[in-house]
Design brief:
Radius of gyration: 28 Å
Helix content: 40-55%
Low-confidence stretches: 282-287
Structural class: alpha/beta
Distance between the termini: 88 Å
Strand order of the largest sheet: 5-4-6-2-7-8-3-9
Number of domains: 2
CATH topology of the largest domain: Alkaline Phosphatase, subunit A
Largest sheet: 8 strands, mixed
């Protein structure tokens, strides 16, 4: 041991210390997500932690590499220096405390998205929404509490690192042959540790952590600093900037086939005319047409409802509404974020990998629900509980048919409770006189309303009395109660009988974690409610959030040009639905779920109804290829439509 250079002993001890701290964060993540582990064995858990050490060593290596080189060079001179020790300790403390902060931020992020911390968390920062996000974070007590383990971990690292440096000996004992050998060995091991594996073709990747069929344990081994850095590097890769699964011609042909387009327009490949002029219930009504109110429900997963199997009685009103409406039990949203839900509901276009559709420059125009109804004489409005500029919602919607946007600036300051603005039921109450005014203009109106209460920071008004004791259940109860109050208030209005109400989620919640994509994060109620005019029916057809607009137009019997990826669920059917999870996607029908992560070349085919973990990809390769092409062709044509400015149909007349 005396012949081992001091810089080797210091580096080895620091590695052990850092692995211990990262492991502590991993233990915390596991304990907070035990309900997501499911059936497993002790050995599988141990495997996840062993894998975690590998990813921790990668993270440590990238941070400590340059300081280790400096330490090696300094120790060559064989002189102990307390000043150098202090500088070295403090530089490492600052650097690694930042990584501990990312580990802490990863815990609530994982709870929300069932995905390790990645570049998506910083999408808002690049476009001016950082203040809003930071306020949202600091108003949520859970997020503030995460600062405590960061500070504690930073102190623990400083304390032991300082002790290691102070007690280091043997600076004067420089044996140059051994020194040279140990230098090569140490730097070689640090470099290998940074690569994570010996295979010369590829360094360690996120997919390396996936050692089994347990989605929770597969992710447990990852280090969030690694996933953040990897996702940032992937986002800078030119190959990731555009989806390019096949030729545009092949993609267009597939989409036209899947949408049933037999005689496509020469210039607008997915545009098709929908004609209700000969319908006995056509749009030529004396009343000028039905009003439409679409409520986009924050985080309202189908799994939160009794229809979806939830036993906590969280959504008694929504469950009752589904029984007396045209409702679809197998509808899925297009992405994992609120902006995805807003974008797809308004445009009937899918979201694409890491492409923040609302912030695209220039802002594109689409033949979506608001723009189409506005052209047909409708008044249009959008309601949100908070800042309308967040995620560029106001800028996008104002270019896509929305005339009036009601947001936090319109509410009394006294009613604003958190960064997310006013509670849901207050927004609904505030909307009533506005709807009265619009109804009095002798023109039908369209309005979309984005709720927010079922998203942290949580606020439950004193006048609401929940049944459950846990806050995560109470807030869903309150969101459901707010919907009930909205319909009760609307029922008293003269415009109620002439209004179609639509309920859909922006996205769901990570309540089931059987697979790397939690289906509950995309599975949404889809409810069309129009008492006395729309017959109640529970429909089991595969549906998408993209289908809201065409189905509404079908219910209204209004002719239009459908230049979108949506279908009228009353007339047509889709073979599959598909959704995007930032860096991976899912495709499903009634039996099969395909999960693909293109950047990692990971693909799986599962019988999700039985929650089977077996990957059937080798048993049914043709089915998997069909599902893959169904979704990938749609995403590629979506990007083609946007790049070629074909998202807005221009008449050739």
């Amino acid at each position: 041991m005396k012949r081992i250079p001091v810089f080797v002993k210091i580096t080895f001890k620091l590695y052990l210390l850092l692995v211990a701290i990262y492991t502590a964060f991993r233990v915390a993540l596991l304990l907070l997500n035990l309900d997501r582990v499911g059936s497993t064995t002790i050995w599988e858990v141990v495997q996840a932690f062993i894998m975690g050490v590998r990813f921790d060593i990668v993270t440590i290596g990238f941070v400590i590499a340059i300081p280790t080189i400096i330490l090696t060079i300094f120790s060559f001179f064989g002189k102990k220096s307390r000043l150098f020790e202090l500088i070295y300790t403090w530089v490492l403390t600052v650097c690694f405390t930042i990584t501990f902060g990312i580990c802490a931020a990863d815990i609530p992020y994982f709870d929300q998205f069932f995905d390790r911390f990645n570049i998506t968390a910083f999408e808002w920062m690049a476009t001016g929404d950082s203040v809003f996000v930071f306020k949202m974070i600091f108003e949520e007590p859970t997020y503030i509490l995460m600062m405590l383990p960061v500070l504690a971990s930073g102190f623990v690292f400083w304390f032991f690192a300082n002790r290691i440096m102070k007690r280091s000996t043997g600076w004067e004992s420089v044996y140059y042959v051994q020194y040279s050998i140990y230098t090569v060995l140490l730097w070689g091991l640090v470099f290998i540790g940074m690569r994570g594996r010996l295979n010369e073709k590829s360094p360690i990747m996120v997919g390396t952590a996936y050692f089994g069929n347990n989605a929770m344990l597969n992710q447990l081994g990852l280090n969030p600093n690694f996933t953040l850095a990897r996702s940032w590097l992937d986002s800078k890769d030119p190959d990731n900037q555009k989806v390019r699964f096949m030729s545009d011609e092949a993609a267009i042909a597939l989409v036209q086939k899947n949408l049933g387009i037999e005689n496509p327009d020469e210039e607008f490949p997915i545009a098709r005319a929908v004609d209700f002029s000969t319908s006995p219930n056509g749009s030529g009504r004396n009343d000028g047409g039905y009003n439409v109110i679409v409520v986009i429900m924050e985080g309202m997963s189908y799994n939160k409802t009794a229809h979806g199997g939830n036993t906590h009685n969280l959504t008694p009103f929504l469950d009752a509404l589904m029984d007396k409406s045209l409702s679809f039990n197998n509808c899925y949203t297009s992405g994992t974020h609120t902006y995805c839900g807003i974008y797809t509901t308004f445009t009937s276009y899918p979201v694409i990998f890491r492409n923040h559709a609302l912030k695209r420059i220039p802002v594109l125009q689409y033949d979506g629900i608001a723009a189409t109804l506005q052209r047909q004489g409708y008044q249009t409005a959008y309601f949100t509980t908070h800042d309308k500029e967040f995620d560029n919602v106001a800028g996008f919607l104002s270019q896509n048919g929305v005339e009036k946007i009601i947001s936090q600036a319109d509410y009394p300051v006294s009613e604003v409770q958190t960064t997310l603005g006013v509670p849901d039921d207050y927004m609904f109450r505030f909307s009533m006189p506005i709807f009265d005014e619009m109804a009095g203009n002798n023109r039908p109106f369209f309005a979309a309303m984005m709720t927010a209460s079922d998203h942290g920071p949580y606020y439950i008004p004193d006048y609401f009395e929940p049944r459950n004791t846990e806050q995560k259940y109470q807030i869903t109860e309150y969101a459901d109660w707010s919907l009930q109050r909205f319909i009760e208030m609307a029922h008293e209005k003269p415009w109620f009988d002439n209004t179609l109400f639509v309920f859909v989620a922006d996205h769901g919640a990570a309540l089931d974690t059987d697979y790397s994509i939690p289906l509950s994060y995309f599975h949404t109620p889809l409810v069309f409610y129009m008492p006395d005019k729309l017959q109640p029916q529970v429909n089991e057809a595969i549906a998408s959030q993209m289908d809201v607009f065409p189905t509404v137009m079908g219910i209204l019997n209004k002719s239009y040009i459908n230049n979108t990826f949506g279908i009228d669920l009353q007339k047509d059917s889709r073979k599959y639905t598909y959704f995007m999870g930032d860096d991976k996607y899912g495709v499903l029908n009634h039996e099969w779920l395909l999960i693909n992560k293109p950047s990692e070349d990971q693909i799986g085919l599962y019988k999700y109804q039985e929650k089977e973990k077996k990957n059937y990809i080798s048993d049914y390769p043709e089915l998997a290829k069909e599902m893959q092409k169904y979704a990938e062709s749609a995403w590629q044509v979506s990007e083609y439509q946007q790049d070629k400015k074909k998202s807005k149909f221009l008449s050739h007349e």
